[in-house]
Amino acid sequence: FRALEFAHYANRFRNKIFVVALTPDTPLDDWLHDLRVLAGYHIQVVLVAPDPELRLERIVGQSNKRGTRFQLLMLTELAFPQEGPPRIDYAGLHKDLTNGFMPIIAYHWEPAGPASLEPSFQLAGELAVQLKADKLYLVTPKVGAWFGAASRTQVLREEISRMDAELANGGIAGHEP
């Protein structure tokens, strides 16, 4: 039954654009298989992932030897202006997606001063708008603490802010901060 459900999902989103953002504490290795499956079903994915230790080049190289078509795009400090979103070649990303590549946008950047939003999420949101993405996934291990084992497809910003505050003040009932 799950295979049929997944096949229906994959067919429904064939040639659609997904933008996926990972936080620094989300292990990319855990997501590689899922990304390969999505690509196999012709779902176009742009991944945004922090890379402070510059590990992604090795991971992408090894994965591409096994047949994936990941394309690593490094954003440096120079790509992030003081104000506003980073400068990205959106037409080039569309072309890469159309040609069957899966761009992985890796960065090493911390905003100056306190950020109201995780940098990966900020960048992925901008990408989703500019690419007219069909889905935007913001992935963080914090969600497990927020929702236990239950999966949620949509979470409002106000819910995240409230749950973050609860975690900072001793946790949500039954969960460790």
Architecture blueprint of SSEs:
Elements: H1 2-12, E1 17-22, H2 32-40, E2 44-50, H3 56-65, E3 70-75, H4 90-98, E4 102-107, H5 119-131, E5 135-139, H6 142-147, H7 157-168
Parallel strand pairs: 1-2, 1-5, 2-4, 3-4
Protein described:
The protein starts with a helix and ends in a 9-residue tail after the last helix. The protein has a 5-stranded parallel sheet with strand order 3-4-2-1-5, with helices on both faces. β3 (70-75), α4 and β4 (102-107) form a beta-alpha-beta unit. It is an alpha/beta fold and 177 residues long. The chain is globular and about 45 Å long. It is built from 7 helices and 5 strands, in the order αβαβαβαβαβαα.
Short description:
The chain has 177 residues and is an alpha/beta fold. The protein has helices at residues 2-12, 32-40, 56-65, 90-98, 119-131, 142-147, 157-168, and strands spanning 17-22, 44-50, 70-75, 102-107, 135-139. The model is unreliable at 172-177 (pLDDT under 50).
Give start-end ranges of low-pLDDT stretches: 172-177
Helix and strand pattern: HEHEHEHEHEHH
Helix content: 25-40%
Number of helices: 7
Strand adjacency order, main sheet:
3-4-2-1-5
Average pLDDT taken over every residue: 77
Return the structural class. Answer: alpha/beta
How far from one another are the termini? 36 Å
What does the overall shape look like?
globular
Strand content: 15-25%
Biggest β-sheet: count, sense, barrel? 5 strands, parallel
What is the number of E strands? 5
| Rg | 17 Å
Keyword list:
single chain; 177 residues; alpha/beta; 5-stranded parallel beta sheet; 7 helices; 5 strands; 17% strand
